[in-house]
Specification:
Blueprint lengths: L8 H16 L5 E7 L6 E5 L8 E6 L7 E2 L8 E6 L13 E7 L7 E2 L6 E6 L6 E7 L8 E6 L7 E2 L9 E8 L47 H7 L32 E2 L1 H5 L24 H5 L7 E2 L4
Antiparallel strand pairs: 1-2, 2-5, 3-4, 3-5, 6-7, 6-8, 9-12, 10-11, 10-12, 13-14
Length: about 325
């Protein structure tokens, strides 16, 4: 028996609002901005708490300047170097690929070294056999695409500081992690004709740049299969509306004046259009974004890769 998710109207509305908050909430407050690579790959900053699931904690520091260091699992220090921006980013020194950010004299209350003279390492790692990870040390600015994780007072027996330009040390710890753009498919050349997140070997629309993953069977590359668009009622051959009454893109429900007017942009207002549409309300196929015959929270969750994007300029 195929059971559909059924929710009372009041509970469904509350869940929509909860999903809105979850989709729209920002990252925790930061002490300062560390650095981000110009290409938008690795991004690092010092925070009180790294954002759950969105960021990886690489290192802990006792302060943002003239500090001792510790490992994430071995120290209670409250200043954390948090990094994001790379799919599959990790801190596993045994991973392939990985590189050592710094070596520490202990897991807590430690001095640091860039010359490998200590035995406790903190690392960054990538995911996929064709990913790369590289950390270097320089008294100049980090090279393009490298992010600054910390500054250090010397090559060994050193203190650490952040990268905010205030009370920093002269030597910067610069790291670059480049994800494998097809983790499940061998593509040593990392060919990527459209320059988006997915390499040609695993991109179902290799000539169209998108910020969402294009599923197989999606003729117009808008993130929804032709089969789903036939259920929803949008045009499977047209990725973006040409006018407010042109219903082309499944998640595009709101043009600022009401649901059902299409401007080629997706934001929280589109998600709010689901109020009153969730089961057990009468079935409205226009909101059935997974084409399963029911409108429920699973359809709302599909908005995650599309929030604050445009089909004309993703």
């Amino acid at each position: 028996m195929n059971r559909k998710l059924r929710l009372p109207t009041s509970i469904g509305a509350a869940l929509v609002l909860g999903i809105v908050v979850a989709l729209g909430i920002g990252v925790p407050w930061a002490f300062n901005t560390g650095s981000a690579s110009p290409a938008g790959s690795l991004e690092c900053s010092v925070k009180t708490v790294c954002a759950y699931a969105a960021e990886v904690e690489v290192l802990r520091m006792s302060s943002t300047s003239n500090a001792h260091a510790g490992t994430p699992s071995g120290s209670a220090y409250g200043h954390r170097v948090c990094c994001s921006g790379v799919s599959g980013l990790g801190t596993d020194c045994a991973a392939t690929p990985s590189d050592i950010v710094l070596s520490l004299s202990a897991t807590d209350n430690a001095h640091v070294a860039s010359d490998g003279s200590y035995t406790t390492d903190v690392c960054v790692s990538g995911e996929g056999d064709d990913a790369t990870a590289d950390c270097t040390y320089t008294t100049d600015n980090c090279d393009a695409d490298y992010a600054c994780l910390a500054t250090i007072s010397g090559s060994t027996n050193a203190h650490v500081a952040d990268c905010d330009g205030v009370d920093d040390y002269a030597t910067k710890v610069c790291c670059l992690v480049t994800p494998d753009n097809c983790p499940d498919v061998s593509n040593p050349g990392q060919e990527n004709s459209d320059g988006d997140e997915w390499g040609d070997a695993c991109d179902n629309c290799p000539a169209t740049t998108t910020v969402w993953e294009v599923p197989p069977g999606d003729t117009d590359c808008d993130g929804f299969t032709d089969a789903v668009e036939s259920v929803v009622g949008t045009d499977p051959d047209d990725a973006c509306p040409d006018a407010l009454d042109d219903d082309a893109w499944p998640p595009d429900l709101n043009a600022g004046t009401g649901c059902g007017e299409h401007d080629g942009k997706v934001n929280i207002l589109d998600v709010l259009c689901f109020r009153g549409k969730l089961a057990p309300n009468p079935y409205d196929r226009r909101y059935d974004l997974n084409g399963d015959g029911s409108v429920n929270i699973l359809d709302v969750l599909l908005y995650k890769p599309f929030i604050n994007t445009s089909c004309a300029n993703p």
